[in-house]
Amino acid sequence: MKKTVFTSLLMLTAAAVIFAGGSQEPNDTTKSRTDADKLVIYTYDSFASDWGPANAVIPPFEEKYGIEVELKSAGDAGQVLSRVILEKKNPQADIIIGIDNNMLSKALSEDVLDVYKPAGIDKVADHLIFDKSFHVVPFDYGYFAVNYDSSALKNPPASLEDLTKPEYVKSLILMDPRTSSPGLGFLLWTVAVYGDNFPDYWKRLKPSILTITDGWDSGYGLYTAGEAPMVLSYTTSPPYHVEYEETDRYKALIFSEGNYMQIESMGILKGAAHRTNAEKFIEYMLSDDFQNQIPLTNFMMPVTASAELPASFDYAPVSDKPLLLDTDLIETSLDTWLDEWLDAAVK
Fold this sequence. Notes:
There is one protein chain. The chain has 2 domains: 184 residues, Periplasmic binding protein-like II (D-Maltodextrin-Binding Protein, domain 2); 149 residues, D-Maltodextrin-Binding Protein, domain 2. The chain is built from 14 helices and 11 strands. Strands 1, 2, 3, 4, 5, 6, 7, 8, 9, 10 and 11 form an 11-stranded mixed sheet that branches. α1 crosses α5 and α8 runs parallel beside α14. The chain is globular, with a radius of gyration of 20 Å.
């Protein structure tokens, strides 16, 4: 029997999580979902945070369509998907935001998504449409990168291999690939570069790791608090500090082996109670009103060519070696890779 470590561990994590905004009594939730002017969305913490995209894109949508959006978040995207899997026989949301190219295989294998091809999909470059079956639709993209604090680290690494050097002992904060989409992205990054030998790389890397957090928010928070000079994040993270803190001390590294790509998406859940409203939101997501908010709220790249980039994105370095793994390969190999990662990096 194929092992399902990824699914089971994610489920255990999600079962212990209380969704923000989910404090209503069951009867209240049931009542709210029968209203025709409702839309329930599950997403990850940073999307729903005070500084995230939600506050910028949801109120205009509500005003335009007269639809009340109930937004619930918990942890990283992996934890949100786990929640959806737990509820798939009785879905409590209409849309999930945050499934990326690395998590798609898990979502499809669990059969939690419905197909919807929006009319505005022609605005998106073909290479960003990683699901040609349209169970999900992309809304932003970026590249994973090791970020570093230039005031604390004067000689940053130039490659994945450099990260294993003794000078970087206890200097790096990573995320758990079982619960975090960036954590999974970094694991797949090492697979893309080292192939079957990736566990050996993790054994060499282990002394450099200060901690492995459940999600990106907690890991990045430790980094900006000065707990370690390096953290797994994105090439588009430095613009945040330039834009809102007027500092360029935090920088992203382009590695010689290449940087792994992430494309984030949203999809309509099977059994969605407000299917028509969900379709309206997907179409709205591809509009300039939505896409123009992505750079300065989610600090990722918008997927439509007509969207505008602010000047602070000049501080986002560009990799000339984008890395991706085939989604079918991820589906067939992920459980094995996670087992090998556990043995090499955790045990």
